[in-house]
Amino acid sequence: MSKVTISAPGKLMLFGEHAVVYGYPCIVTAVNRYITIEVEKTKADYDILQTPGVSDKSFVRSAIELFRKKFKTEGSISLTSQSELGNYGLGSSAAVTVATIEALSRLYEVKLVPVELFKLCYQVILSVQGKASGFDVAAAIYGRTLYFDGQNKKSTLLYPKSLPIITIFSGKKGETVKMINKVEELRSKFPDRITGIFEKIRHLVEQARLALNESNWSSLGKLMNSNHQLLVELGVSNSSLNRLVMETNKAGAFGAKLSGAGGGDCVIVLYPQDKKEAIIEAIEKTGKEIINLKTGAKGIRPHPRIT
Ligand code: PMV
User: Fold this and answer.
1) Of the residues 47, 56, 136, 192, which is catalytic?
2) What is the DSSP letter of 295?
């Protein structure tokens, strides 16, 4: 194959962040914003990497290195990326890793089934980030809305359509590694308390799974609020995330929560159709940006060439 182009979607964590790192389940949805990677072989004796919009290039480098080591491929490559994910914490590290490995596997005609692709990409994420659950890798590969088991890394498809969710950027980049380390430290100091919080999160995730299956939005919204409170207890929220959760609830949301590791990034708001306008007005008053996206998007796929 002479040139390969692959797109992988970003994600939003719906329920279960942090606990999932310790083997608990979570619910994640893929969003309709993608990172596209184009690769081809080059005669140069070095790789040519052009990755605008990818803030941390370590994931691409590490993905190429692991692929070469595992499949003993030779020669240099030229790789170009294009990102629609911005700097909102929508899972660009996982999406870029998944798209890079899949593109290389097609370029070198190495057949990888999704489970093998997951394993390789998860290895890359762990090598760069240290601690991670792999939920974002699953979302980038399979797409849709998934129940992800942090223990055995299995994904189960849940609600098939886009959810009535508004996504707000808090104005600050999230702090994935810092927050993971903070929770780890708390867990080693207060193991019973933190395990107690993780167990409550597990319970919420199981209830949310049922609520999603029944499209029971009012129940799902309450679960989001409860999950947010548990994240506050874990010490990963901040005043601007809390304010967005509070203001959108006041304006009539079913519920809201921070999404992801915390310390910044996004708040997701589940809304009743008749309250959408009021909620948007309340968000506009806070001066924060609404990110226009749909959930339950398709997973990894070939893509028309980058122009
Ligand atoms: O900050 P994000 O969006 O990468 O989300 C991290 C979610 C964690 O559970 C804290 C980490 C993980 O890998 O599951």
Assistant:
1) 136
2) B
- Tell me which DSSP letter residue 143 carries: B
User: Are residues 227 and 257 in contact, defined by beta-carbon separation less than 8 angstroms?
Assistant: yes
Cross-strand bridge partners of residue 49 = 79
CA gap 36, 48 in Å, rounded? 16
Whether residue 180 has its Cβ less than 6 Å from ligand 1: yes
Closest atom, ligand 1, to C-alpha of 16: 9
47 annotated active-site: no
Could you tell me if 164 and 290 are in contact, meaning their C-beta atoms sit under 8 angstroms apart? Answer: no
Pocket probe for ligand 1: among 26, 27, 136, 257, the residue whose CB has the most ligand atoms within 8 Å is 136
Tens-binned pLDDT, residue by residue, of the chain (307 aa): 689 999 999 999 999 999 999 999 999 999 999 999 999 999 999 999 999 888 788 999 999 999 999 999 999 999 999 999 988 989 999 999 999 999 999 999 999 999 999 999 999 999 999 999 999 999 999 999 999 999 999 999 998 789 999 999 999 999 899 999 999 999 999 999 999 999 999 999 999 999 999 999 999 999 999 999 999 999 999 999 999 999 999 999 999 999 999 999 999 999 999 999 999 999 999 999 999 999 999 999 987 655 4
Nearest CA to ligand 1 atom 3: 260
Query: Do the Cβ atoms of 6 and 304 come closer than 8 Å?
Result: no
Strands 165-169 and 289-291: antiparallel
CB 92 within 8 A of CB 55: yes
Ligand 1 neighbourhood includes 174 CB (under 6 angstroms): yes
Torsion of CA 265, 267, 273, 276, to 10 degrees: -80
Strands 48-50 and 76-83: parallel
CA distance 101 to 112: 9
Six token digits for residue 217: 């939005």
